């Protein structure tokens, strides 16, 4: 593990920027969710991209009354993860499970995954006797590979900004409350690694997509190695391989039809394997100009681009936004756009409380 940590730009972290980066990341998660939600499940055409451009332009208008964009399960669950870390410095997973269940039964109409709600019911019925049992029984024992673990993981990356090993461990254990399939768990770990890594880059220096993705590949390789059976045959490194596909797409000059290929090859569905690498791709692609998006702000471009890929737009934009916000900080978030989103002030306060809980 120590070899991997050497690759993280530890020396580059500026503690004064960190508070803004905490806010930026949780706001990125919120804005991606709220602004992507109206398009969830849609196929996006070239004409739709023009409409999405206008939609985002309008959201930046000071005249617009808000908040009117509701958040979904992505933010509801992210808030529970953050609250758990704030309230219980020694992570209490039973408390986290209780927060998920309380949140769901208080507001069940937030667009939760079809199967994860069974986990919540079983947890409640069993009085949280074994918090990992209900998830392990999903899909005839294979566990969920949905992106529900990844969409809520940003607070873990922030809280453990200076403890990489604890971060990986917490990303796994917090995901396994609802998702036990290796693809669901390692998808959450991959997203956590990406958010964490973005914290260590100064937004005044443009990230080199190849350097950033190479760092991620090294780290996810170490995580996936733990699933090896030690025989040296049929090694199973799906996320490492998918990140290499991300790199090959980044090497292609942008053209309009590319988005369709990205959606088909990297994926845009609710499976973690078909959405987490895609979110990382959105962030890395949006570091540079995208001809179909008329805006110079990397944070907004990341979220807008994620929405234009269609499919699981709230969740891909939420994950991409969390990475972009961790890189750019709160200053990149347009306040008028933010105020259009339900829970904007609450998320800022939550980010500050999370910061206070871990930065001494
Ligand atoms: N549920 C949705 N979107 C549906 C439409 C919502 C609509 N807009 C509305 O407002 O009502 N979005 C949310 O769900 C995704 C996260 O899901 P999560 O938490 O991973 O849930 P679940 O149920 O565990 O998995 C989701 C589906 O994936 C398939 N699946 C998972 N594992 C499987 C396995 N081992 N074998 C076969 N299929 C598996 C199933 O279809 C699950 O129902 C986010 O997009 C969030 O926004
Ligand atoms: Mg959702
Ligand atoms: Mg979704």
Identify the bound ligands.
ADP-ribosyl-L-arginine, magnesium ion
CATH architecture type: Orthogonal Bundle
Cα-atom radius of gyration: 19 Å
Return the CATH class: Mainly Alpha
Could you give the order of the helices and strands? Answer: HHHHHHHHHHHHHHHHHH
Strand composition percent: under 5%
Number of helices: 18
Tally of strands:
0
Number of domains: 1
Q: Please identify the structural class as seen in this structure.
A: mainly alpha
Mean pLDDT: 94
Question: What's the main sheet like?
Answer: none
The N- and C-terminal alpha carbons lie at a distance of 25 Å
Task: Give a structural overview.
The chain has 360 residues and is mainly alpha-helical. The protein has one domain: ADP-ribosylation/Crystallin J1 (ADP-ribosylglycohydrolase fold). Helix content is 60%, strand content 0%. It is built from 18 helices and no strands. Helix 15 runs antiparallel to helix 16. The N terminus is likely disordered. It binds ADP-ribosyl-L-arginine and magnesium ion (2 copies). The site of ADP-ribosyl-L-arginine (F2R) has 24 residues, from helix 4 and helix 16. The site of ADP-ribosyl-L-arginine has 24 residues, from helix 4 and helix 16.
Describe the protein's topology:
Elements: H1 2-7, H2 15-36, H3 46-59, H4 73-87, H5 93-106, H6 116-125, H7 133-136, H8 154-159, H9 164-175, H10 182-199, H11 209-225, H12 238-250, H13 258-265, H14 276-286, H15 298-308, H16 313-328, H17 335-339, H18 344-358
Helix pairs in contact: 2-15, 2-16, 2-18, 3-15, 4-5, 4-18, 5-6, 9-10, 10-11, 10-14, 10-16, 11-12, 12-14, 14-15, 14-16, 15-16
């Amino acid at each position: 593990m120590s070899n991997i940590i050497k690759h993280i730009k530890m020396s580059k972290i500026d503690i004064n920027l960190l508070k803004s980066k905490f806010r930026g990341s949780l706001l990125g998660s919120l804005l991606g969710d709220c602004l992507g939600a109206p398009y969830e499940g849609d196929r996006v055409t070239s004409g739709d991209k023009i409409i999405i451009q206008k939609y985002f332009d309008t959201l930046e208008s000071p005249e617009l009354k808000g908040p009117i964009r509701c958040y979904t399960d992505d933010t509801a669950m992210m808030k529970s993860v953050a609250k758990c870390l704030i309230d219980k410095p020694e992570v209490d997973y039973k408390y986290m499970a209780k927060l998920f269940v309380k949140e769901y039964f208080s507001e069940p109409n937030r667009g939760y995954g079809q199967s994860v709600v069974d986990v919540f019911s079983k947890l409640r019925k069993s009085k949280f006797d074994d918090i990992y049992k209900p998830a392990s029984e999903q899909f005839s024992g294979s566990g969920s590979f949905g992106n529900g673990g990844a969409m809520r993981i940003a607070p873990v990356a922030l809280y453990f900004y200076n403890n990489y090993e604890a971060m990986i461990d917490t990303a796994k254990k917090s995901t396994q409350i609802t998702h036990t399939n290796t693809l669901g768990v390692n998808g959450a770990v991959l997203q956590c690694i990406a958010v964490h890594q973005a914290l260590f880059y100064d937004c005044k220096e443009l990230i080199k997509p190849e350097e950033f993705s190479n760092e991620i590949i090294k780290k996810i390789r170490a995580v996936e190695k733990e699933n090896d059976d030690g025989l040296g045959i049929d090694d199973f490194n799906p996320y490492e391989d998918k990140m290499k596909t991300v790199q090959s797409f980044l090497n292609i000059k942008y053209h309009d039809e590319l988005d369709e290929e990205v959606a088909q090859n990297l994926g845009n569905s609710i499976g973690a394997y078909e959405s987490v690498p895609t979110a990382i791709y959105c962030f890395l692609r949006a570091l540079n100009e995208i001809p179909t998006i008329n805006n110079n702000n990397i944070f907004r471009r990341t979220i807008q681009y994620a929405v234009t890929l269609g499919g699981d737009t709230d969740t891909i934009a939420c994950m991409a936004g969390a990475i972009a916000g961790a890189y750019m900080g709160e200053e990149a978030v347009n306040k008028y756009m933010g105020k259009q989103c339900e829970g904007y002030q609450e998320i800022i306060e939550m980010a500050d409380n999370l910061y206070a809980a871990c930065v001494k």
